[in-house]
Structure formats: structure tokens, C-alpha cells
Amino acid sequence: MTRMTVDELLSARDTAGRRYAAAIAELRAAMVDLSAIEHALDHRDSGLDAMQRPVRTFTGEADAIPASLLHPIYAPEADGGINYEATIARDGYLTRLAGN
């Protein structure tokens, strides 16, 4: 095993922290997208009957990244508003489904 200096370990921490921040941002984006798509498919204007509609997995409680995934330096805030963004995106999907 190769020795490591403290500076190298600090640099590795920064690299991992930047990756973590990017992963949290991607998780948030995926939560918005999946919620919006599921809500659009579940909407009465989707063209699907009730038996064809998927089960919505995100509801009111998923409005922010869970606190247990936050990091004081690399992901310090929950940055809520996921439901609002998902609603806007859902409306966009429904408009596109309608061909408008």
C-alpha cells in the first residue's frame, strides 16, 4: 500500500465532495423528472384509463432531498421545492401529450 500525505487526503476529500454534490444535484433532478412523469401519466388528461396508470411513488413528503443525505460542506441545504418544479414539469408533459 502506497503512503499518502495529508495534502493528498485533503485533495481526495475535495474530489469526493464535488462528486457527492453532483450526485445530490442529479438525485434532485431525477426526483423532479420521475415525479412529473408519474403525475402526468396519472392525470385524467393523459389518455390512460385508471387501470393503466402507474402508481405514483412521490407525494407531498418528497419535497426536498432527505436530511440524512446532506453534508455540511458539499450538500448543506435540502433545497426544497421539488413538488413545485415537478408540477411545472408535469404540466409541460401534459401539454406535449396534447400536442399543443
What does this 3D model show about the protein?
- The chain has 100 residues and is mostly helical.
- The chain has one domain.
- Helices cover 54% and strands 0% of the residues.
- The protein is built from 2 helices and no strands.
- The relative contact order is 0.18.
- The model has no long low-confidence stretch (mean pLDDT 88).
Essential attributes:
100 residues; elongated; mainly alpha; 54% helix
- Percent strand: under 5%
Question: How much helicity do the residues have?
Answer: 40-55%
Distance between the termini: 61 Å
pLDDT below 50 for ≥5 consecutive residues: which ranges?
none
According to DSSP, the number of beta strands is 0
Question: How many whole angstroms does the radius of gyration measure?
Answer: 19 Å
Categorize the overall geometry: elongated
Number of helices: 2
Mean pLDDT: 88
User: What structural class should be given to the helix and strand makeup?
Assistant: mainly alpha
Number of domain modules:
1
